[in-house]
């Protein structure tokens, strides 16, 4: 494990990457919050045979271990545990949650597939290999971002394969108020009755980003075929903009991939409750 520190009131150095790296040997200093990390790369065979399919679980979990604001630290840790591992792990500390999740993942993998796999082996009579869909994987990565000096923003990236044509992947953001540890939702950021206005701005920006002159042209590019534009609760407060993130299938099919739409704070003036960045200059 490697410890690093970040905080919220000042940015001491420019950071080239949006993600907070635990392996670059550099300390990211904004204040006094100290982070630790848990990393695992665990592979377990489906049956007691090294040639059998296996499941692979990778976790890269960066979490706060020290902060003057205990309420903030407790709020961050609890939200991260639930987001990454599920409500069943609420109340556990990071180490216990990771260990329990790993053990449960392997146990459920074997419980769900061992009988089916043995049956397939028996039916194949050794004449052909059994399908590769028996090999599962899951990856969970939780990292703080470093763009906004007033809030702690976390990104949780997950990918998973449990048989079928392809795996799944998602990115989810959590925005914490650095003063009281509360999790921010769109209603906390925007004034009442913001949805229609923000939806129009998002649609306009998406059309610009995709070089679409009309809504029909946008739909031809596979966007918004089954839904109308809406402000996603999956957002992050950046330095200059709010980034609305849409995972696969939310506004476009799997083949299109995830979509991120940035609206600058200047564009959103009049809709925001307050400026989401610290504009005071020393």
Helix-and-strand structural type: alpha+beta
- Poorly predicted ranges: 1-31
Strand content: 25-35%
- The termini sit apart by 36 Å
What features would you describe in this structure?
This protein has helices at 70-85, 94-124, 186-189, 195-209, 215-220; strands at 4-6, 33-45, 54-66, 136-144, 151-161, 168-177, 235-237, 241-246, 259-264. It has 282 residues and is an alpha+beta fold. A hairpin with a 6-residue loop joins strand 4 and strand 5 (151-161).
Write out key terms for the chains shown.
single chain; six-stranded mixed beta sheet; three-stranded antiparallel beta sheet; alpha+beta; disordered N terminus; 282 residues
In a nutshell, what does this entry contain?
The protein has 282 residues and is α+β, with helices and mostly antiparallel strands. It has helices at 70-85, 94-124, 186-189, 195-209, 215-220, and strands spanning 4-6, 33-45, 54-66, 136-144, 151-161, 168-177, 235-237, 241-246, 259-264.
């Amino acid at each position: 494990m490697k410890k690093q520190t970040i905080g919220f009131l000042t940015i001491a150095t420019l950071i080239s990457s949006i993600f907070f790296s635990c392996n670059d040997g550099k300390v990211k200093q904004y204040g006094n919050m100290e982070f630790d990390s848990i990393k695992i790369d665990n592979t377990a065979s489906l049956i007691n045979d090294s040639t059998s399919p296996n499941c692979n679980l990778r976790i890269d979990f960066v979490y706060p271990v020290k902060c003057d604001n205990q309420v903030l630290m407790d709020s961050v840790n609890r939200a991260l545990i639930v987001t990454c591992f599920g409500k069943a792990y609420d109340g556990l500390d990071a180490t216990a949650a990771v260990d329990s999740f790993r053990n449960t993942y392997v146990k459920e993998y074997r419980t769900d597939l061992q009988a089916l796999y043995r049956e397939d082996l028996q039916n194949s009579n050794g004449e052909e290999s059994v399908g590769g869909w028996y090999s599962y994987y899951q990856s969970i990565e939780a990292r703080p971002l470093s763009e906004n000096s007033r809030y702690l923003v976390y990104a949780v990236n997950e990918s998973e394969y449990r048989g079928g044509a392809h795996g799944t992947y998602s990115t989810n953001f959590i925005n914490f108020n650095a003063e009281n540890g509360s999790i921010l939702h769109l209603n906390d950021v925007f004034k009442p009755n913001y949805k229609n206005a923000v939806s129009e701005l998002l649609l306009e920006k998406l059309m610009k980003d995709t070089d679409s002159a009309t809504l029909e042209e946008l739909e031809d590019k596979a966007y918004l075929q089954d839904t109308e534009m809406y402000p996603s609760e999956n957002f992050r407060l950046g330095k200059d903009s709010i980034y609305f993130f849409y995972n696969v299938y939310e506004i476009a099919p799997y083949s299109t991939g995830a979509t991120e739409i940035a609206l600058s704070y200047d564009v959103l003036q009049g809709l925001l409750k307050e400026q989401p960045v610290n504009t005071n200059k020393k």
